[in-house]
C-alpha cells in the first residue's frame, strides 16, 4: 500500500516523522529512478481517495502548470454557472480578434471567427482538446485569471497561482512560470472536486465527463495502464526553447482501480532536455508503478 512520504525516504526513516516500510520506500525509490531519465526536475504526488494512502516526490515544490491550469479554470466556470452568473448553454461570440498563433482546434474549425458557441462547448474544447483559444475566451468571460486564483483560495487550495492567459504565456518564455501549483495541492483539488457534492450534480457530471474524454497525452498517465482503465485527466505541455529545454510536460488526474477505488495522481516534468518520447515515458512509467502498487 502507498504510505505517507513527503521528503527523502532515508531522511524520513531517520527522523521518524512518517511510518516507513519496505513497500513504500521501494515505490518511492523506483519513482525517483524513473524520474532521472528526464534529466530535469520531476514532481509527483498521489493519493488513494478511499484509503488515504499517499506518497510524494518534490510534492511541495512549485511547478509550471501550462494547460493543467484549464482544470481549475473549468471548475471556476462551473461554479459560476452554479451560482447563476452564467448558463452552461449560454452563447459566447467569438471574433477573429480572439485568435492568436496557438494550438486551437476551435480556430481550425472556424478560421474566420465571427460565430457563437455555448459555454458547454467551450469547456469541452478547453479540457478535452486543450484548446488555447477556448481557454482564453472563458478566462475573459470570467473576468480574468485572478478570478480563478481567488476561487481556488476560497475553497482552501492555497498553493496555486493562475496569473497569465494562454496568450500571455505565448509572449515570453518566463511567463509560464507565473502559473504554478504544488503537486500535493493539485491532488488536494482533485480530492475536493471529485466529491459528489462539490458542484451541482449537473456540473459535477459534466466536469468529470470532459476530463474522461481528454484526448491529449495518450502516452502519459494512460500510456501503460491496462486497456479499458477509466482515467479522468488533464495534460499540460510547454514548448522547447533554443537551449533544448522543455519547461513543462505534465499530466494530472484520477485513475479508477480494479476494485473501484480511485488513485489521484499528479506528475510534473520540468526543465527537461530530454525528447518528448522520453518525457512521456517517464510519466507513463511512474503512473504504472503507482498503479501496480495500488492494486496489490
Automatic annotation (TrEMBL):
Signal peptide: 1-19
SUPFAM superfamilies noted in UniProt: beta-lactamase/transpeptidase-like
InterPro entries membership: Beta-lactam/transpept-like, Beta-lactam_cat, Beta-lactam_class-A
Domain Beta-lactamase class A catalytic: 43-269
Keywords: Hydrolase, Signal
Keyword Signal in annotation: yes
Record GO terms (molecular function): beta-lactamase activity
Catalytic activity: a beta-lactam + H2O = a substituted beta-amino acid
NCBIfam families assigned to the protein according to its UniProt record, in alphabetical order: bla_class_A, SubclassA2
Official protein name in the record: beta-lactamase
Species in which this protein is naturally found: Mucilaginibacter jinjuensis
UniProt gene name: bla
